[in-house]
Amino acid sequence: MSDLRSINPSNGDIVGVYPQLSEQELNQLIAEVNSEFDLWRRIPIKDRCKYFKYLAEAIQIRKDEFARLMALEMGKPLFQGIGELDKCAWVCDYYADNGEKFLADQTIKTDASDSYVSFQPLGVILAVMPWNFPFWQVFRFAAPSMIAGNVAVLKHASNVQGCADAIEGLFIEVGIPNNTFRNLTIDSSKVDYVIENPFVKAVSLTGSTSAGKSVAQKAGSVLKKTVLELGGSDPYVVLKDADLDIAVDSCVSGRLLNSGQSCIAAKRFIVDINIQSEFEKKIINKMNKQKVGDPFLDKSTVGPMVNKAAKDELSTQVLKSIDQGAKLIYESDIPKSKTGCYHPIMVLSNVKPGMPAFDEELFGPVACIITAQDESEAISLANQTVYGLGAAVFTSDIEKGKEIANIELEAGAGFVNDFVRSDPRLPFGGVKESGYGNELSSYGILEFVNIKTVYVR
Ligand code: NAP
Fold first, then answer.
1. 157: CA distance to ligand 1 center in Å?
2. What is the span of the domain harbouring residue 335?
3. One domain, residues 211 and 334
4. Overall pTM surpassing 0.70 (yes/no)
5. How high is the pLDDT of residue 408?
6. Probe residue for ligand 1, chosen from 132, 137, 213, 313 as the CB with the greatest number of ligand atoms within 8 Å
């Protein structure tokens, strides 16, 4: 059983080595978390909420330190790390302020003397999480699930165990009862074993579609609920009446967030032929103002990719697409480094179905421009994907934009004249191979509860 390693993607240095738990240690730890469930679920919800207020404060106090840790383990530029941590504090505050209201009993008038619906926690929930937003993904899961009374075990991505330990440490620091939230230092090969553990009642996975399918299959075989937040290939439809400056700003922000390594990145720009050449000029101009570089430097807006394998995979997807007819119309500089996993920002034009740049998820700073002859072809191209996470449309006709975002685009979120992003107040989730279930908002807190009927004669 090999140790887990964090490797600095800017220079290849080993940042941390983490021995994995044995099966015996795993069983022991999960049993300890389970034994905490009865206590945690009986703490009044007001008090569980208070702990998440403390967590929000603790995150704010230590956000510089945590942003540096993310930069070190997965290459996120520091200012983006700070933004991520602000959002973690926000989601803790949001559920601390609203959890009680979301989970209040709901009386239903029937022929009983009293009948109502209550929301009871399930027990130990396993969270399998990715490295790309190492703090946000965990708090987005933990705040609603634990305020609802569940306890949690985290299987974080192998390369961000420093972040996983820091998060576990935060729970202890704010005084949440020991073993209510624990980190499992294991790689993905142990996930099936954990799912089989009878104390584990459900699984939340954020990650690739292939990991989602594997977890869903295992969890299905032992009849445990899953929530799956998976990959995406978000289309940004730019119609001929769009304000191009707004569209270009949103496309660039949406594509380059987290150095292009985001599930809801703008992965395909589908542009009306009448405005395509002007759109391309503006995109190149805007991309040219970005800086690929060391995530610790203020001027860097795009950091390295997470590791060499990810960088090589992206290069292969780009080269294959160019072989099939895509045109490389922009390529940025990258730092001169033999060991850093830097990939240039690129813009590909003439991208078509059948090319990896159209059909697959490009998880890095490469933008793809796809030409549409008209609105109806643009919508059809947008939906020509196995994914359905986010989508955006740019038009000066707001009513038409709403109609397209709401009715036409096959996605969990449709944005009009803005880039797709998550917000604790709004539900977040995908359709098709982007997964199922919701996180965030009043809907997310209901994923891991027993929606229970109480009936009194
Ligand atoms: P990943 O390889 O699927 O890993 C995600 C997590 O799943 C890690 O903890 C990983 O563990 C584990 N895992 C991998 N294969 C597994 C398997 N067969 N069984 C059980 N667990 C498994 O994804 P990633 O490369 O870290 O993240 C990028 C992907 O996540 C992209 O596709 C992105 O779009 C998606 N994502 C989706 C959302 C969303 O909200 N929809 C958000 C962020 C990212 P190890 O690290 O030990 O392999």
1. 7
2. 234-416
3. no
4. yes
5. 98
6. 132
